[in-house]
Amino acid sequence: MRSDRKDNEQYDPCRALAIGVASGIDGRLLYETLSKGSSDSFALRNHGMKAILPGIFPREAFSTRYAMKDLDSALALAKNTKITPRDLARTIFRLSVR
User: Fold this and answer.
1) What DSSP string runs through 45-63?
2) What is the pTM of this model?
3) How far apart are CA 9 and CA 23, in angstroms?
4) Count of helix runs (H) and strand runs (E) in the chain
5) Are 34 and 17 in contact (CB under 8 A)?
């Protein structure tokens, strides 16, 4: 995690994947690229690459409270891009049901 960011702007593999895929970037390529630089982290390698990317979401592993926080953060970030909330929601849904 980079120290020059505020708590609500921390790197998050879920947000990165949703926004990357919505922008047309292959998820695996995105994570592999992020892992080569300062965004490499435990969360990226163990949650992102081993669970999020292959779509393995065990019950009770991630609270709804955290999911809502991440969705709020993703919507705030989407406001600063050309990605509409609808496109972001479609991408998140598509990633969650594969």
Assistant:
1) IIIIIIIITTT---TTSS-
2) 0.56
3) 19
4) 5, 0
5) no
